[in-house]
Write the structure tokens for this entry.
Amino acid sequence: MQQENNTKEEIYSLETILSTMTKVKNGVATKRLVFDQAPIDGIPAKWVIAFFISLPIMLYVGIFNPSMFDLLGIAQAIIFFVVFLSMVMILIAATTFINNNKVVRQINPSWEKYFPNVDLKLLLSSSATPYKDFFKHYNKAVQSKLEGEELQGYLDESFSTMEAENQPLMDAIRRNENRR
């Protein structure tokens, strides 16, 4: 029975998929730095961010408390703080990377059911892709309050428009896909 649950993949709605990777505030959608797992039954992004903020504070309290500070002295305490703070920053970057990749892996099967010809990773990439104007188009859909099939239809048309505008780049990507 448990094996059936592991092989069964959940299909998320388009709104759920978009809410994991975008934040809508005042009718404007922006890409999240830390993707939200809450819509797909995971840890909310606000708790992940709270954890990130608490790490340097806990480090400061751990090193500069009276007993540790007396043991280390000012110079060693500052050196330890700087060294461990750099480790905390690496931990935060790694955790963000792991969190975002986990979310993308979970929503990708559902995304492929809605848009089989649009690579989700290209959509989320910050480099030059055919879908660099996705948020401009998605913001228009948000302002129009589109949902369900209307949203899917609008985004499908938007992807076609973006691909047509960036045809040489799309051709290069398709040629490269055949080489893999």
Remarks:
- The first strand starts at residue 22 and ends at 25.
- The chain has two domains: 11-112, 115-180.
